[in-house]
Amino acid sequence: MSEADPTTIGSTAPGHYGSASTALFLREATIATAWNVHGDAGSASLRAEVQRIARLVLPMAANTTSKGEGVTALWLGPQSWLLVAADAAALGDFAGARDAVNAAGGALFDVSASRIAYAVDGAPAAAIMAAGCPLDFHPRHFGAGQCRQSLYGRVPALFYRHREPPDCTMLVARSFAHDVWRSLCTAAAPCGYTVRAAAPFG
């Protein structure tokens, strides 16, 4: 990978920035489709309908996730989940899925354009995330496959351990994404970081 201008902290162009270390990697984790499911977690018909649509079992325990064929389900609350797909074909037709979930007593909302996701990988990842977030990123408290909601700076964020710690993905509102990216890069600059090309979520 070619060397990037080290003065352009906050650039999204692939390359190396900050100090000479190459232990930290940042990239956008692209989201093709994101649907918000609402409903009674105790409803067998709702769970079955979502399983048919997304080919996964909704996570019932707080702050957990589940994965299917190209789809990740993240627990948001006792009656709310986020389905994220890196490929639009993984979830299919929204209108048909919405009607089926409604018929099962739930609700489905297309929020595909609402969030941007950034993956932070490498040994310093937990320290870089903790620089802007009050969460405890220690593996004992936040392991692979789990998710948490908190703030990064003053921006609401959803954190997802997409792999074994310390790697983590952060989802933020699209309107704040540029500011969050720059904050991440600024925190990472003293240890050095490499921006990689965008890759699918998950």
Quick overview of this protein structure:
It is elongated and about 55 Å long.
Describe the structure.
The chain is of the alpha+beta class. The protein has 2 domains: 103 residues, 2-Layer Sandwich (Gyrase A, domain 2), CATH 3.30.1360; 78 residues, 2-Layer Sandwich (Alpha-Beta Plaits), CATH 3.30.70. The protein contains 4 helices and 13 strands. The chain is elongated, with a radius of gyration of 18 Å. The mean pLDDT is 94.
Descriptors for this entry?
8-stranded mixed beta sheet, 13 strands, Alpha-Beta Plaits, 32% strand, 202 residues, Gyrase A, domain 2
Which helices and strands occur, and which strands form pairs?
Elements: E1 15-17, E2 25-30, E3 33-38, H1 44-54, E4 65-67, E5 71-77, E6 80-85, H2 94-103, E7 107-110, E8 115-121, H3 125-130, E9 147-152, E10 155-160, E11 168-173, H4 177-188, E12 193-195, E13 199-200
Parallel strand pairs: 2-12, 2-13
Antiparallel strand pairs: 1-12, 2-8, 3-6, 3-7, 4-5, 5-6, 8-11, 9-10, 10-11
